[in-house]
Specification:
Layout: H1 2-14, H2 20-29, E1 39-45, E2 54-60, E3 70-79, H3 85-90, E4 98-99, E5 103-111, E6 123-127, E7 140-144, E8 148-150, H4 157-177, E9 185-188, H5 194-205, E10 209-214, H6 217-225, E11 232-235, H7 243-250, E12 256-260, H8 275-278, H9 283-289, E13 290-298, H10 307-316, E14 319-322, H11 327-330, H12 335-350, H13 367-375, E15 384-386
Parallel strand pairs: 9-10, 9-12, 10-11, 12-13, 13-14
Antiparallel strand pairs: 1-2, 1-4, 3-5, 3-7, 3-15, 5-6, 6-8
Helix pairs in contact: 4-5, 4-12, 7-9
Length: about 375
């Protein structure tokens, strides 16, 4: 009877053990050889199309044995990002429960027999692939080594997890889609967002002249405090400033070389019921202020261009590209280039080029509430869960 009580007491203590070393130590003092330890992860559930998704914690058993190129990771921080339900449906990744939290930073606990880049106790950061079965909001996860890079020593866990996705999006938009170079003029819509902040900093680092829009007085004040300074901040909240007029004035009438939008209006203001959509520029305004040979990088996946729009772009020799940062994980052809981006993002974070817009770290038990806020697009700062 005393032995049984001692076993139960030790198993309870296992639930609060944080480090891998302590975990291993406890395994040796138990008489049993096989122990199943359950951990909680956050998942979302959508009962039927059109319904709001709900977030739930679920317990799961130990990870399978780590083999080949996989790494077992102790998660230290996990950043939260909006979930594109439509994309998951189109990729045939629908399931009853889908894992939440993909941008992770942590310590390597164990490596497979074919892993060549990492060793136990290495500090790493990366993004779980779109089809991963793992929830990043879990203490231990399993991930392929080709989705990870080393975390610089002086970068904190929350900074590493909080900047990795926005860094990739910025590189994809400004480097690979628009070929940004010194002296170019760049319009970054909604520059006070977490993504806009990193994009502005990358554009400045490449020697570009940056124009940005603000959707509130607080956003305007934040953008005006950024250093290096933005050449012009266009406040759209008062309904008086016009994006096209301001950009043409700033560029001497020749137009902007690169435009990175945060969504566009496809119809007139009277036909847009949502107030937040009315703050967005119309697609005709974007095309009008785009310079000759310019690049329009859009996040609007349902963009529809009429023949007059296409003709105007043709006359300017301009291009339209769609920003989908998931393409790096959907195709392994560009895996080496993807890893180079991850490494460069971490290097610029370490040297102070990137200064992410982070909220205060959130404990794991508040992850469900934070994720609900993120999914409703109500979070202006990056939400990061810290273990």
């Amino acid at each position: 009877m005393k032995l049984l009580v001692k076993k139960l007491s030790i198993i309870k203590q296992l639930k609060i053990i944080k480090s891998h070393q302590e975990y291993s130590k406890f395994l040796h003092i138990l008489p049993c050889r096989t122990i199943v330890v359950t951990m909680k992860g956050l998942y979302f559930q959508q009962n039927s199309p059109g319904e709001e998704i709900s977030f739930v914690f679920q317990e799961r058993e130990n990870l399978p044995d780590i083999k080949d190129n996989y790494v077992k990771l102790q998660v230290k921080a996990c950043a939260l990002s909006w979930i594109n339900i439509k994309l998951l449906s189109e990729m045939k990744l629908e399931k009853e429960f889908f894992p939440v939290g993909r941008e992770i930073a942590g310590v390597v606990l164990e490596v497979g027999n074919k892993v060549s880049f990492f060793h136990p106790d290495d500090e790493v950061v990366g993004i779980l692939p779109l089809d991963s079965e793992e929830s990043g909001l879990c203490e231990i996860v399993r991930i392929h080594e080709h989705y990870l890079v080393h975390k610089p020593e002086k970068v904190t866990w929350t900074e590493a997890a909080g900047v990795i996705r926005d860094g990739i999006r910025s590189y994809t938009a400004l480097h690979f889609l628009s070929h940004l170079s010194p002296g170019k003029s760049v319009l970054i819509m909604d520059g006070a967002s977490t993504f806009g902040t990193i994009a502005i900093q990358l554009a400045h680092h490449r020697g570009a002249k940056v124009i940005s829009t603000a959707y509130s007085l607080e956003d305007k004040e934040y953008l005006e405090r950024l250093r290096p300074a933005i050449v012009r901040v266009i406040d759209l909240s008062n309904g008086k400033d016009d994006v096209t007029e301001n950009c043409l004035e700033e560029t001497g009438g020749i137009g902007v070389d690169i435009i990175l939008d945060a969504g566009v209006r496809l119809y007139s203001k009277n036909d847009e019921p949502a107030l937040n959509l009315q703050l967005l520029p119309h697609k005709h305004d974007i095309i009008t202020l785009l310079g000759v040979g310019g690049h329009w990088i859009t996040t609007e996946e349902n963009l529809q261009l009429d023949p007059p729009d296409s003709h105007c772009l043709f006359l300017k020799g301009a291009t339209v590209s769609f920003l989908n940062d998931e393409v790096w994980n959907l195709s392994n052809v560009q895996q080496g280039r993807y890893l180079c981006i991850l490494k460069d993002v971490m290097e610029k974070l370490s040297t102070g080029v990137f200064r992410p817009l982070l909220d205060e770290p959130v404990p794991p038990y508040d992850a469900k509430v934070s994720m609900e806020i993120v999914q409703k697009n109500q979070a202006r700062k990056k939400q990061v869960i810290q273990f």
